[in-house]
């Protein structure tokens, strides 16, 4: 991934700014999640969530662990090399003081099967940094029809793409 590549999180708003862009084009990685991956604090719980999704896409194990709250941080690896992430959709995002909740849906393929993860993640602001604390997750297998759009985002029908 280069800084000029479209950011995997799909954001059209910079994570360091508080204003919305009227341009709906996806930001490039260098102006979106890369600064957070390099140590810049996330401006919001949603920005941290997007940067964590991007880190899963890129396999940035150290960032994922660093952005996890120490109370709930796992000891072992959190990335699985057999998992490929294909899309993120933020369903809701809210903050109240030092806590935030972001509900999202992510599409991925693991061990040859298409799946979706729906999660409402809880975040805590600690030492001026948002941290992932925990979440309620629901994994479901996707069974796209032959004529459905391919979940990989190619724009092709499933039967002509990843089927």
TrEMBL record:
InterPro entries named among the record's database cross-references: NTF2-like_dom_sf, SEC_C_motif, YchJ-like_M
Segments forming domain YchJ-like middle NTF2-like: 44-135
Coiled coil segments of this chain: none
Pfam family for this entry, one: SEC-C
Name this polypeptide is given: YchJ family metal-binding protein
Taxon lineage: Bacteria, Pseudomonadati, Pseudomonadota, Gammaproteobacteria, Oceanospirillales
């Amino acid at each position: 991934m280069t800084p000029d590549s479209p950011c995997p999180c799909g954001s059209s708003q910079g994570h360091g700014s508080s204003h919305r862009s009227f341009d709906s084009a996806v930001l490039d990685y260098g102006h979106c999640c890369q600064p957070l991956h390099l140590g810049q604090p996330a401006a919001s719980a949603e920005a941290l969530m997007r940067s964590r999704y991007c880190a899963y896409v890129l396999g940035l194990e150290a960032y994922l662990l660093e952005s996890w709250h120490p109370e709930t941080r796992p000891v072992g690896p959190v990335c699985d090399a057999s998992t490929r992430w294909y899309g993120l959709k933020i369903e809701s995002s809210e903050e109240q003081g030092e806590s935030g909740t972001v509900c999202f849906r992510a599409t991925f393929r693991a061990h040859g099967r298409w799946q979706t993860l729906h999660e409402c993640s809880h975040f805590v602001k600690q030492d001026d940094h948002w941290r992932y604390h925990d979440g309620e997750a629901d994994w479901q297998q996707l069974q796209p029809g032959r004529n459905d759009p391919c979940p990989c985002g190619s724009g092709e029908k499933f039967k002509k793409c990843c089927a």
